[in-house]
Design brief:
Largest sheet of chain A: 7 strands, mixed
CATH topology of the largest domain in chain A: Aspartate Aminotransferase, domain 2
Number of strands of chain A: 14
Number of domains of chain A: 2
Oligomer: homodimer
CATH architecture of the largest domain in chain A: 3-Layer(aba) Sandwich
Strand order of the largest sheet of chain A: 2-10-9-8-7-3-4
Radius of gyration of chain A: 21 Å
CATH class of the largest domain in chain A: Alpha Beta
Chain lengths: 397, 397
């Protein structure tokens, strides 16, 4: 009796839940410390102490009618100014409150901007491998998501295919930088090429194509690599951000959209996004948390911890003979499956109590995703299992 | 360049904003204390002190990885149990965590359950006058909202019309009790009649018709009137609740759905709603606030304050000759316009610095809504303006 669309989604979701339940089952049999669950993208570094201080500050000192009250659907103006200032300081941009809409995480922000832009029948492109929820978010706006395949050597977008896939109905392109699940950071020259192609196609079709940059992993970049700020490369860019990873606040659902003044039809897009925040039922980003992140927006999580996990795993996997593009961002490794059907490899890994996610869940068969936002013990203790897997598949040289 | 649907919504929203801006303009000219703004439904009683204590408690004592982390899309199990227990204590029901889904306010909850149930082309009914956002929420799920007209003497649903309007495509009926904007409370005998009609129609069509009870005003009931708990009257009831009014936390976006075990296809509906929470981009209700409301779910706001405003305004309006159904819930009065076109009356009121909302915004022409969630001074000082309006229209006997 539920809707047909939801019925399909529930079936899918049951498959994922089944995997988690198997993991829980393994933990029961072998003990949690002997199960290496690399399946979830849930930060395991605690929120910085400054979050606690900010919460106590606002609950003690702010007027409760303001702190817990409705504000403009775009969010508190002073909060939006504080966040704009922080972006300006860090990325040499020139935003103010009129460019920021506070959202219920990045997921809320993406739904808001897609609802604002997409007409039924429009297409939205993204670059594979990609976060599978994009399919649902685009469907919510009655559009269709299409994925541009990657160049498998480096997991950068296949630019020829990208150019061919842009149609007059292409309303937006979603890019996720650093990328979940590949862990790669798209460098300036890749962004420049994307911008060049989009500019050309906009001119050719006489349309506006918005580049939506989904950036929950922006602060998780290693080896000193620069994550380009996309509004500086392409005029019609909208940035979606979340404090889920940078401040370890995924459950609190707090993020924002940046809508630069120079995007086509800026006033309509900004006002549309404010209205979308309301009509989609978000109404506004959680008020108390808006005031908290405004006080902590220059803070960072403990990146060194994730970097340590990354190095141990990447080096070990290389040593054992696995193929894996070097990840410079987020907290994921995207490993080539030693057999064509990566579901077979996931099943083999499970026999060693190692839980990985199949690449087809990210639009990329033949690969598996490993999330290294886990304890150091899990990382270190899992290595013999990976070595055994490498031996099983004859990878060790 | 924004979507056609959003373009219409933005135009609408600009009209409402224009009204607010006019109000701000009036405040500038005459002083805020001389403008009687009855247009907004924003609680003006501060959150109880126990909210502050609960926030400090959880931020001080809870593990930050748990407090700010992801949990099941349905919400923390212990929070859902605490809320189920509170409902059971107060309404003699028998729920547990498996019947509760924590949501981003009632607006989030309504979108979640509509996305779960509604297929494109389905219709959803509601009872006029009604909260206009229902139109958008049903549209988000690609359904169509139709409003059952009221009996104007008492603003109860016209039961004959209701029965006639139910079709095989009717997937759900939204009821808002106490009602915004009329302020009436639908009593047990009205609910029984609704249930009887729905049962009959379900049998006739062989369908399931879900009754969605939107209850943000449940605790705001006066004169000792009982607000029936609808799951006890009709099997296929889903309740949507928000702490916006009862704990004055509208900005924090925290509420829940109750999905009783006895609804048709309970497991699919519950699992569908959890998945809808995720795919719509809510993901989960704000985590810290989930833990806070679990500690305060038996608290109430200062109802006596609203009741005081209600009595002063209702009695004065009666005395001046206005027609208005006696409001026993929420914080609204729905006044009959002394002229057929209530927009004319709104304009006349504005000349006395009184801001009211036109009834057609709630699907009911010829009436205006007055929100009395304002300071006592605003209420008392506005009375001469209402008296002058009554004299202008020859209402004073």
């Amino acid at each position: 009796m539920i809707s047909k669309n939801m019925k399909k989604l529930v079936e899918n979701s049951s498959a994922i839940r089944a995997m988690f339940e198997e993991g829980a089952q393994l933990a029961k049999i072998y003990g949690a410390e002997n199960v290496y669950d690399f399946s979830l993208g849930n930060p395991n570094v605690a929120a910085p102490e400054s979050i606690k201080e900010a919460v106590i500050d606002v609950i003690t000192n702010d007027d409760p009618l303001m702190l817990h009250g409705y504000m403009s659907n775009a969010g508190y103006e002073d909060v939006r100014n504080a966040i704009a200032d922080s972006i300006n300081r860090r990325f040499d941009t020139n935003f103010d409150a009129s460019n920021i809409i506070m959202t219920v995480g990045a997921a809320g922000g993406l739904n808001v901007i897609l609802k604002t832009l997409v007409d039924p029948g429009d297409t939205v492109l993204t670059f594979a491998p990609f976060f599978a929820e994009y399919i649902n978010y685009v469907n919510n706006a009655n559009g269709t998501l299409e994925a541009v395949p990657p160049v498998l050597e480096n997991f950068m977008p296949d630019m020829d295919k990208f150019e061919q896939m842009i149609k007059p109905s292409t309303k937006a392109v979603i890019i996720n930088n650093p990328n979940n699940p590949s862990g790669v950071v798209y460098p300036a020259e890749v962004i420049e090429k994307i911008a060049e192609i989009l500019d050309k196609k906009q001119k050719e079709y006489g349309t506006s194509i918005y580049l939506i940059s989904d950036e929950p992993y922006r602060e998780l970049a290693y080896d000193g690599v620069e994550v380009p700020y996309l509004t500086k490369y392409y005029k019609n860019t909208v940035v979606g951000y979340s404090y889920s990873k940078s401040l370890s606040l995924p459950g609190d659902r707090i993020g924002y959209l940046v809508i630069p003044s120079e995007v086509d039809d800026y006033e309509e897009v900004f006002e549309g996004a404010s209205v979308a925040n309301r009509v989609l039922g978000f109404v506004n980003a959680p008020s108390l948390m808006q005031r908290v992140v405004a006080k902590c927006c220059d803070e960072k999580t403990d990146i060194d911890f994730y970097d340590g996990n990354r190095k141990i795993l990447y080096n070990a996997l290389q040593e054992y003979g696995f193929t894996c593009v070097k990840p410079q961002g987020a907290f994921y490794l995207f490993i080539k499956s030693p057999v064509a059907d990566e579901r077979e490899f996931c099943a083999a890994a499970k026999k060693h109590n190692v839980l990985l996610v199949q690449g087809r869940s990210f639009g990329c068969e033949g690969y598996v995703r490993l999330s290294y936002c886990v304890s150091r013990d899990t990382v270190v203790n899992s290595l013999p299992a990976f070595k055994a897997l490498a031996e099983e598949y004859g990878l060790i040289k």
